[in-house]
Amino acid sequence: MDKFVTLTSVAAPLPEADVDTDIIFPARFLLLLDKVGLGKHLFHERRHAPGGAATDFVLNTAPFDEAKILVADANFGSGSSREQAVWALSDFGIRCVIAPSFGEIFYSNCFKNGVLPIVLTGEAHRNAMSAAASGQLFVVDLERQTVTFPNGPATRFEIDPYRRRALMLGLDEIGGILAEDADDIAAFEIRHRASQPWLFLDDGRLDRLFDETEDQ
Amino acid sequence: MNALTLYDKVWRQHVVKDYYDGTSLLYIDRHLVQEVSSPQAFAGLVSEGRNLVRPAAHIAVADHAVPTRLRHMPLPDGLAARQVSRLQANCERFGVHYIGMNDNRHGIVHVIGPELGFTLPGLTLVCGDSHTSTHGAFGAIAFGIGASECECVFATQTLRQQKQKTMRVTLTGALQPGVAVKDIILALIARIGTNGGVGHAIEYAGPTIATLSMEARMTLCNMSIEAGSRVGMIAPDDVTIAYVRGRKLAPTAEQRDAAEAYWLSLATDADATFDREVELDVSALVPHVSWGTNPGETAPVSSIIPDPALETDLARRAKMERSLRYMALKPGMRLDEIAIDKVFIGSCTNGRIEDLRLAAQVVVGRQVASTVSGIVVPGSASVRLQAEAEGLDRVFTDAGFEWRDAGCSMCVAMNDDRLEPGDRCASTSNRNFEGRQGQGGRTHLMSPAMAAAAAIAGHLVDVRSLEALSNG
Ligand code: SF4
């Protein structure tokens, strides 16, 4: 995963609440099997008129077509768990989204892909939105946990220490668990199997179920 | 003694280790795998050369992309065919049991998990799908995850997670005839908002719960994610146990007593506290329908469309204006005068046998309006077979509905069933997002009985007033 330390870019303003992941990445493109190249379908309906021509949606408009930051509004990324929403944002070049609140699954998907979601509320969010709209250059510093733009003081944001470290080091979470926690998991499984044996279908019940043919 | 909630009790049983940084490594008992969120997760295993550690903890099924008619024919859409065959190939490679499209156990993941007894009380269950909250109806911690987390479960059988805060929704009173559990959840979301539950695991509790069937409880927990909560739970009781007994993957005869005693012990302790409490008296509740483009934009069917000008929060106002533009509706319009052209009865929210019975009761002896086309899509093959045994398919087809094979169908525009631009649909699904049922399509969410009534009337209508309509 790409490391995230600092980021300097204009920020695209999207002042609309409840932008769900169906808007960010429409369902029909979920039939694609890849992670890469999804940026062309990002906000597809917003960026393309019915005939296919480009609209004046913010991400189609210079300088925001090159923005690495998106300033969005409340409940951004709510709805479907599709990680394609994050893959599409990152493929488009967006590495940071600033909003007052996020859909939870989207928020956690961001961290798996080197994208930093920042929660700013109230005044701080309003300032960021207007700085974005006027095309100011944002500096996001994950080490110091600040967002800065010319017309205002540095704003501090909160982030879980673990997630911050994972982003800064570009950690491979699965590799980490396998390397460091495998013994704990094995020991847990033994205890768990003893206390709730019915949870373990390795006893052949699942195989037997699937041995029966049930074709219509 | 520390009093614990249902969520605390199940959580505590699954913590492999605490990292002391606000996160814990959580053991995941079971994983439902589908075609949309798994290809990239399997590809990750392959590219990193990793194993899938416990194949017996997973079952796989294709539900989103599959057609709901002509099942025995090759899939017409090349992309869908590729996605379904990729799932099957991945399952073969990694030893995961795969349920084929024409198998009697096929269906929407969230319908078949409980049917098979793969979903049980007290376990942790995940799926790369946000409506995994459905399974919380059994008193499980069940939540939707992204593809990267699916890969983590394949490779480690665990997830690094932060414990949620807790929120109790206490339901009191009895539902009036014609009012359904779907109305409870729509009214709740309208009240607390689509992000009202973010960061919280919801527990639905209170005297009303005991009166609800497992099907109704699943509808309730299913839409927790529409209130922003990944997790929605209900404590196991006799209704839960009666549902689970005899399911194919339920505990064996020797395990049963211990399992059931354990499940009943999971109920929230009397003096446990929640981070947030919400109460809802359902006895005064009336049928609800959505008017906008998220499930919180919902109102009683007898009311009018609200005016964005009265909304003081500017981003909210912009969102409402956009919703009304997309939905081609105006403030002040009566909801029960909105004409519709499509009806969809199905989905993981309302595609279970009880839902079809409720819709059929409204439809029996009546005709779908000439301006409307409607489809009824059972949530699983077993629901379809049960409905056919009860003659419900004939009730629907006699009235002019199409009767289909199981799948997600028109809940999500990923298969052949979708709205055309400008179509307006009365739908029993869970999301009315822009384009959710097809590019440019407009969705009104409601209960199965309300959708059936709209099909008959040709417009949104209070199912309780249908008796008064002439049915010429
Ligand atoms: S029925 Fe709809 S909400 Fe449920 S799993 Fe399928 S697409 Fe998702």
From TrEMBL, chain A:
Q: Which EC numbers characterise this protein's activity in its record? A: 4.2.1.33
An example of a Pfam family matching this protein is Aconitase_C
Top EC class per UniProt? lyase
Catalytic activity entry: (2R,3S)-3-isopropylmalate = (2S)-2-isopropylmalate
Q: Which Gene3D superfamilies match?
A: Aconitase, domain 4
Show the SUPFAM superfamilies listed in the entry. LeuD/IlvD-like
GO BP terms: namely: L-leucine biosynthetic process
UniProt GO cellular component terms: 3-isopropylmalate dehydratase complex
Q: Which family does it belong to?
A: Belongs to the LeuD family. LeuD type 1 subfamily.
- Which protein are we looking at? 3-isopropylmalate dehydratase small subunit
Species source reads Devosia psychrophila
Show the taxonomic lineage: Bacteria, Pseudomonadati, Pseudomonadota, Alphaproteobacteria, Hyphomicrobiales
Gene symbol? leuD
Automatic annotation (TrEMBL), chain B:
Q: Which cofactor does it need?
A: [4Fe-4S] cluster
Gene3D superfamilies with a match to the protein in the record? Aconitase, domain 3
- Similarity remark: Belongs to the aconitase/IPM isomerase family. LeuC type 1 subfamily.
Which Pfam family is one of those matched by this entry?
Aconitase
Protein name, entry field:
3-isopropylmalate dehydratase large subunit
Query: Which pathway?
Result: Amino-acid biosynthesis; L-leucine biosynthesis; L-leucine from 3-methyl-2-oxobutanoate: step 2/4
**MF terms per GO, please?**
3-isopropylmalate dehydratase activity; 4 iron, 4 sulfur cluster binding; isomerase activity; metal ion binding
The lineage's top-level taxon is Bacteria
Q: Subunit structure, per the record?
A: Heterodimer of LeuC and LeuD.
Q: Cite the Aconitase/3-isopropylmalate dehydratase large subunit alpha/beta/alpha domain residue spans from the record.
A: 8-458
Sites binding [4Fe-4S] cluster sit at C348, C408, C411
Species: Devosia psychrophila
